[in-house]
Amino acid sequence: MPRRLLLYPLYLHIGALFLGLFVLFGCVLLTLGYQTTLAQSRQQAQQQFALQRQLLSQTLERHYQPIQLSLGLMQQSNLTTARTLSQRLASLPQLQQLLVSNPSVCAVYMGYQNGDFFLLRSLTPQARQALKEPPPEEATLLVQSLDQPTSAHPEAVFLFYDDQLRLLERRYQPEYRFDARQRPWYQAANQQSGIAISAPYFFFTTQEVGTTLSLSADEGVLGADLSMSQLSELMARMALPPTGQMALFDQAGNLMAGSRPLPEAARHRLLSLSEYEGSIFPHLSLSDALTGNSEQRLDLVDEQGHGWTGVLSRLAVKTAQSGTLYLAMLQTEESLYGPALSQARHNLLISALVMLLMLPSVWWLARRTARPLIDLTREADAIRRFDFNDRPLKTSRIKEIADLTRAMVRMKHTIGNFRSIGQALHGEHHFPLLLTRILQESSNLVKAQGVLLYLAQPVGQTTGRGLWQGQELAQLPPLPAELPPEGLVAQDEASWQQQFAELGPYPGALWLVTEALTNRRNEPIATLLLLLPQASEQEQQAKLGLIRALCGSIAAALDTQRLLEEQKQLLESLIQLIANAIDAKSPYTGGHCQRVPVLTKWLAQAACDQQEGPFARFNLNADEQEALHIACWLHDCGKVTTPEFVVDKATKLETLYDRIHEVRMRFEVLKREAHIRQLEAALPADRAEAIRQAMAPVWQQLDEEYAFVAQCNQGGEFMAPEKLEKLSAIAQRRWWRTLDDRLGLSHEELSRKQATPAAELPCQEPLLSDRPEHCIARPPTEQLAEDNPWGFKVKVPQYLYNRGELYNLGIARGTLSEEERYKINEHMIQTIKMLTTLPFPRHLQAVPEIAGGHHEKLDGTGYPKRLNEDELSLPARMMAIADVFEALTASDRPYKEGKSLNQALGIMARMVQDRHLDGPLFRLFVESGLPQRYARQYLTAAQQDEPVTASLLADIPT
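That's the HD domain-containing protein sequence above. Prediction below.
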């Protein structure tokens, strides 16, 4: 890998530049004399060595760097995973491009893990000579493919191509044997990450000396061969002193190239430095020479006793086996040193003194020149960190630096403005305010005279907004029928009168900018028109670029807000759809789901308006108000699962029909049976009067007993024990049944009746009874475990329904049995179950808790989770008060009349004392006048009595 460059401050570079100039000036002074000329020649020789070393290093880097990049790109190509020769031949264009763009590469190949080998070689003269049979004359490329089939004989083939990759000849090479997995370049690539460079060696096919660059791939190793012959030719052409010599070798002492012709033996094997005849390098001791730093001085003596001096440099390129490459450059001391050495040293000392005297001035000037650039670097780094704080920048008298400073300041302000605009647009959640913000930010960004925004589809009642001379327009002028093309268009007076006359008189020369805003589906969502004052074309084009850059943020913000508004409207419609469906399901609960939200919102707003007391710090932001709104509308959504005949049950015996008619029928039967008995015992007509007198007491008693049963069927506040005893006595009356009561029944009812044996007909039956078939078993799906995931703590009745006649007529309060009351209350369980399954966004996570808590009580005896005071949120307590008040005052219930204000508030006051409702909230509810406000809007005139506030709140905590 190439060595990482060391970085130095700019003032050091400037100082080094000035010092270099002073050195050059000193060298010019040294040339005034003969001795100075000799000293300069020595310096030039040293510089020439450095130049040759740099040239050779750059040559090696030019050899390696493009190849490394190409191998890295090939690592992602299909060649690395190709299985067959046809698949590998598909990569020939890419491989050919690598050879063409890197002339020093003689072959590029891929060795696979299964032993396959695929190579593309340029047919150089050396490559042509290495082949046993000459290739076609037009051939410029050779493909060497070796496949390892399941048999023990691999299949080898040579393919010859021309420059257009046309196949010229296919040769099968059964004697070609080669296992890439055993080659050093293959093993080196697998033992390290990145590019591996092999030590120089003789290539397998052409027997040229070179190195291999290899890189591990998915299913093998990629490789590229580089010939070292070009380095020898380059070193031979380098301009060296007459006595100068150069040699390139590795850490093992293997000779790679040299400035003198190599011996003939170098064509057949690698030579060591000791075999480099005719040069000074056999006298070089590697054990001493290779222990130094990256560059060190060499001093040698040849057989004639002549001294040689030079440098040994460690090149940046390293090989996998032999390590670092070294370059040695030597020349005789006689060519460098001479009689004039003492005079050269004298002149050099004078130059050094001059440079030392000028060093402080150079240092000061370099620091002063570089300081503005240092500040600009810090400012650019701050911008990279999105730090747009204002910091003063050093000014400079250098025009380019001053222009760069001004450009940096403008860029910082532009990026900062765009960042602020983006944050402002995406942080605004109210659509009308968003439109106003878009107009203001657009106008401020380009100093527009007017900004008009037309929405493609209205959002609510909003079709767009306009801003003219800093003031928002009360009415947006109509969008011009024919819009000019997007970009800058001059707006003359005639165009103004045709399109924008409603804005006012023509203000002078203006430019109109039209930009269409689209969403992520490339659908038009708005049109933005800006009227810009007259300015230079360069400035207008700059503003146009800012506008187009801003339009992306505006379109994203508009599209996002439109989607949010549409989703909110859809959610609101669905919520009201569910609530209206619940109210429409039963005419007796109509309006309940609509009135409870009104009351709850009024109470919440009253709490927010309090400046002192327990609700002084209570406040609801927009998200919390939305959560409360949704919870109010969905607080009874579980009622969609409650049977309608249970919700609408008006009498105790009513199921799908009122069974009092059946009971009445039985009384009729008893009356007729009594009549029949009397008729049977009657004598002729002269005894009729006596019969009627005998029947009258029986009929009267039956009428009275039926009236009592009918009275029991109507829900009341309390069923006294003596009434239950009388009801049981009446039930004991018997009547004769002569028909089979199992005929014409549904399968379900018949299965319940078969639990008991059928009676032999005719048989007597009690007037009223609780029979086994009246009890409907609760299915497993209706069971509720104690450790249920919702935390419900309710007593589940044994039966789903109990339709026993005595059981229902004996209901102590109201018309609902325990099973039916559970079914009614079960809507809270279903509400919580339904709402917890909905993926509410983060700001609406409290909806299930608020909607499902309005039947809980502060003392922990509520329904369905038995939450206590600490576990109930304030919005849930508010909804509980609204729900109870609405239920007490509703006049559309079939089993009761609506309470007046005083009656309802009195009951609620007792519920507060029993710790069923929140006391401070109830006090706020009464003192804020919400009951009277609700009564004027929803209650009848008879219910609107004036509450006695003092007595109601006497025992209510503050």
